[in-house]
Specification:
The complex is a heterodimer of chains A (157) and B (257). Chain A has 2 domains: 10-89, Fe-S cluster assembly (FSCA) (GMP Synthetase, Chain A, domain 3); 92-154, no CATH class. Helices cover 25% and strands 23% of the residues of chain A. Chain A has 5 helices and 7 strands. Chain A has a 4-stranded mixed beta sheet. In chain A, strands 1-2-3 form a 3-stranded mixed beta sheet. The termini of chain A are far apart. Chain B has one domain (7-251): Ferritin (Up-down Bundle), CATH 1.20.1260.10. Chain B contains 9 helices and no strands. With 257 residues, chain B is mostly helical. The longest helix of chain B is centred in the first third of the chain and has 29 residues, at 39-67. The N and C termini of chain B lie far apart (44 Å). Chain B is globular and about 55 Å long. In chain B, helix 2 runs antiparallel to helix 5 (125-153) and helix 4 (98-119) packs antiparallel against helix 8. The chains are: A alpha/beta (157), B mainly alpha (257). The interface between A and B is medium-sized, with 21 and 26 residues. The complex binds zinc ion. Zinc ion binds at residues 119, 121-122, 124, 144, 146-147, 149 of chain A.
């Protein structure tokens, strides 16, 4: 019963979730990725709405487990995770912070034009597509024509 | 005379058709994993298969809910027998070669993208939500399969030959996607899904454009193999596919990760 008067604020919970890394691209958080769609207290239960990136993304189950584990570590025990598929996830929901971190890590962030703006390594705009798909469902495979490094591009959807 | 379908039975059948198409094609495409001509294609095919299996989880998940017998998507995928599957025959034919696999993908993606465009406006919110989610992935599949069909069709003499042979072989399987029956009539009446026949003009325009660019000739035949989407008669290939896909649940019922 003690949880009722110690109930952490929704802002506090968003902050905690912003410290949970994406299991496949650990430099960005689940909040950066834009997949946490809602955090609400329903009486003494915390309801977190999560949207999948790609329908078949194998990380989805791990993501739910990571969210639950993180919140439990902060002392919450009544947690309900809800999958929300509508509206569908879009890379427009990715945070500016997340985009910058992706590039720093060597993954070109999504662009509305459908391809990377520049090479995350040397910043050259002389880049070419190797494959429309990459190492995970959310990425495509590109290469820089100047430094010749291959790199991942986070697909824009 | 069989009793007329109830709305709920018709919706269940419609959802099985959507989910069985993505399940069986996803399984077929996954057979390439580790066998593709080049690494990039291997990754692309595996990712496409993964998207399709993920989409299956939503369609068959909803089918189980509508059926109301407490069946999960996994139950429906792994514990039904051949005669209960409702996929079109196109998706169960063997891969044969890379050309035929990509041609089949293109012929299916084109229908799939047009169908999902309509389903996004479905009167059933759950159907509309799945369509909105999956249509983004399918648009990407279509972009790739169309590009590859053009690249190989308008490629070398050898690749052109493979693609024309693939189109000639697969063409009789295209018609089934546009045949309407009482399930479709019920779905169209309820505003849940379009009448399949109504998609044909858009489909012909889309594939006509791509196949012309690929320098391939559409066979001049209206003959269509049928029997998959209503479950009356699948090809012999589906049973073989299911023995592979379902063996674990058959050998160890109830096994889980
Ligand atoms: Zn570079």
């Amino acid at each position: 019963m003690s949880q009722l008067h110690e109930q952490p604020s929704v802002d506090q919970i968003w902050e905690w979730l912003d410290a949970v890394p994406d299991p496949e691209i650990p430099v960005i958080s689940l909040v950066d990725l834009g997949i946490i769609r809602g955090v609400d207290w329903q009486e003494d239960t915390l309801v977190v709405a999560v949207t999948p990136t790609y329908s078949g993304c194998p990380a989805t189950a791990i993501i739910n487990l990571d969210i639950e584990t993180a919140l439990r570590e902060h002392g919450l025990d009544k947690i309900q995770l809800k999958t929300q598929i509508s509206p569908p996830w879009t890379t427009d929901w990715m945070s500016e912070k997340g985009r910058a971190k992706l590039e720093e890590f060597g993954i070109a962030p999504p662009q509305a034009a459908g391809g990377p703006e520049r090479c995350p390594n040397c910043k050259s705009t002389n880049v070419t597509r190797v494959s429309q798909f990459g190492s995970t469902p959310c990425k495509a495979h590109w290469r820089c024509q100047d430094c010749l490094e291959p790199f991942d591009y986070f697909k824009c959807i | 005379m069989a009793a007329p379908l109830t709305d709920n039975e018709a919706l269940f059948q419609f959802l099985l058709r959507m989910g069985d198409n993505t399940l069986i094609l996803g399984h077929r495409v996954s057979e390439w994993c580790g066998h593709s001509p080049v690494l990039e294609e291997d990754i692309a095919l595996a990712n496409t298969a993964l998207d399709l299996i993920g989409q299956t989880q939503m369609w068959l998940g909803l089918a189980g809910e509508v059926q109301g017998e407490e069946k999960s998507a996994d139950d429906l995928a792994f514990l039904r027998d051949v005669w209960d599957f409702r996929n079109v025959l196109l998706v169960e034919v063997p891969n044969e070669d890379f050309g035929r696999t990509l041609m089949r993908q293109f012929l299916f993606d084109a229908w799939h993208s047009i169908q999902l465009g309509h389903l996004m406006k479905s009167s059933d919110e759950r159907v509309a939500a799945i369509a909105a989610k999956t249509s983004k992935e399918v648009a990407y599949h279509l972009e790739r399969s169309a590009d590859t069909v053009v690249g190989l069709g308008d490629g070398t003499e050898e690749s052109h030959g493979y693609m024309q042979a693939a189109l000639d072989y697969l063409w009789p399987y295209v018609g089934e996607m546009f045949v309407s029956d009482e399930v479709d009539a019920a779905m169209a009446k309820a505003g849940i899904a379009p009448d399949p026949a109504s998609l044909r003009a858009d489909y012909d325009a889309l594939i006509g454009r791509v196949l012309a660019e690929a320098t391939l000739n559409i066979p001049d035949s209206g003959f269509a193999h049928k029997g998959g989407r209503n479950g009356k008669m699948h090809t012999e290939h589906l049973g073989h596919l299911l023995t592979q896909m379902q063996w674990l649940q058959r050998a160890y019922p109830g096994a889980s990760w």
